[in-house]
Design a protein that fits this description.
Order of helices and strands: HHHHHEEEHEHEHEHEHEHHEEEHEHEEEE
CATH superfamily of the largest domain: Aldehyde Dehydrogenase, Chain A, domain 1
Radius of gyration: 23 Å
Distance between the termini: 61 Å
CATH class of the largest domain: Alpha Beta
Structural class: alpha/beta
Number of helices: 14
CATH architecture of the largest domain: 3-Layer(aba) Sandwich
Shape: globular
Length: 419
């Protein structure tokens, strides 16, 4: 079986490389039209997608997925429409391929331009969320790349139905169908094969939990844009506006607890708690969140004692850890020790405190007085995202079409020679 998987992945890789060569010079309008056609196919095929998703939901329930993970997996009419709308949004964006980043003239007579160019073939390995199939396919296509998609076993049928719509879009405008390929098996050997396909894949983007990302980083011979855990913190400062804090903390945890931008830990300034309590934590308890409290926060009715393992943990569920800290420096120290450099927020009306938080932390996304649930490429105006890169090389934060390009230098002279 592993030998068959290797042969299958080689064929997929070869087809992707060939398609990437064609996409590198395909007109921007043609690629945009493919996305629009795919969006229309998704709308027309929503019943088929919903039926496929129902099979995945049944599989997920049988597998014992948590309610939050099932929510990540579930597609209803509104979510299917949002997938189509994201494709339309990406199609409408400025095309990054060939865009001039910078140009200048040299005393030698040379005119030099640095322009954006596709990366080539991108491998995307992801879990649970079937919308990633469309987002990743569209963003890679927008940036002139071919893509090999390996979705999670839970979303196998949903991803397949969405992928069919993407292929329909490619076919409608005459682009190679191999530009967007979905690995047609749940066999984990396909992941292992992708990680070593240096001849066929230029970069791997893993999007999932710590186990998946850790495996990719440990085994990959292909360069990786790491989308690590979303251990997102909110620090509620002594100068926080309490009404804002109550709205933001509740939204950051409960809007969709199973996404990577969900808050997993609330840090409370000691002087704030002694002066005004922590009604935002009481709100979480009332909303049905299991609040694992450290120290004096255990005084709050409905909380349960936290263990050491509850800090630095991505729950992806209606569970959150809370802790008292000594001011912004205490919050910074905790986040440096337990964070994943994904998204961290401060709630404060003090400009100097906010500036210190922004300056001294190095998370990919830092927020002030806003819910961590905004850690999303769509909310950043990118139409969609392929993931939130938590590393520091090449791409960081929401990875949109522009981040899926590299650059090359175009140099022009007029019979120019070097003395």
């Amino acid at each position: 079986m592993s030998e068959n998987i290797t042969e299958m992945m080689t064929r997929i890789g070869q087809a992707a490389r060939k398609a990437a060569q064609e996409l590198g010079y395909a007109p921007a309008e043609q690629r945009a039209q493919a996305m629009t056609a795919a969006a229309n196919a998704i709308r027309a095929g929503k019943d088929r997608i919903a039926a496929a998703n129902a099979r995945d939901m049944e599989y997920g329930r049988d597998k014992g997925l948590s309610s939050a993970m099932l929510d990540r997996l579930m597609l209803d009419d509104a979510r299917i429409e949002s997938i189509a709308a994201a494709l339309d949004a990406v199609a409408a964006q400025d095309d990054p391929v060939g865009a001039t980043i910078k140009e200048w003239d040299m005393p030698s007579g040379l005119h030099i331009r640095r322009v954006r160019t596709p990366l080539g073939v991108i491998g995307v390995i992801y879990e649970s969320r079937p919308n990633v199939t469309a987002d990743a396919g569209a963003l890679c296509l927008k940036a002139g790349n071919a893509v090999i998609l390996r979705g999670g076993s839970e979303s196998f049928h949903s991803s397949g139905a969405i992928h069919e719509c993407l292929v329909e879009g490619l076919r409608a405008v005459g682009l190679p169908e191999a530009a967007i390929q979905l690995v047609p098996t749940r066999d984990r050997a396909a992941v292992g094969a992708m990680l070593t396909m240096t001849d066929h894949i230029d970069v791997i983007v893993p999007r999932g939990g710590k186990g998946l990302v850790g495996r990719v980083q440990a085994e990959a011979r292909v360069p990786v844009f790491a989308h690590l855990e979303g251990i997102c913190h909110i620090y509620v400062d002594s100068a926080a506006d309490m009404d804002k804090a109550r709205r933001v903390v509740l939204n950051a945890k409960t809007r969709r607890p199973g996404i990577c931008g969900a808050a997993e830990c609330v840090l409370v300034d000691r002087t704030l708690f002694e002066r005004a309590g922590a009604p935002f934590i009481e709100d979480l308890v009332k909303a049905g969140v299991e609040v694992r409290a450290d120290g004096s926060l255990q005084q709050i009715d409905g909380t349960v004692p936290a263990s050491a393992d509850d800090f630095g943990r991505e729950f992806l569920d209606m569970i959150i850890a809370v802790k008292i800290v000594d001011g912004v420096d205490g919050a910074i120290e905790h986040i440096r020790a337990y964070g994943s450099q994904h998204t961290d927020a401060i709630l404060t009306e003090d400009d100097a405190t906010a500036a210190r938080f922004f300056e001294r932390l190095d998370s990919a996304i830092l927020m002030r007085n806003a819910s961590t649930q905004f850690a999303d490429g769509g909310e950043f105006g990118m139409g969609a995202e392929i993931g939130i890169a938590t590393g520091k090389m090449h791409a960081r934060g929401p990875v949109g079409a522009e981040q899926l390009t590299s650059f090359k230098y175009l140099v022009e002279g007029d019979g120019t020679i070097r003395s």
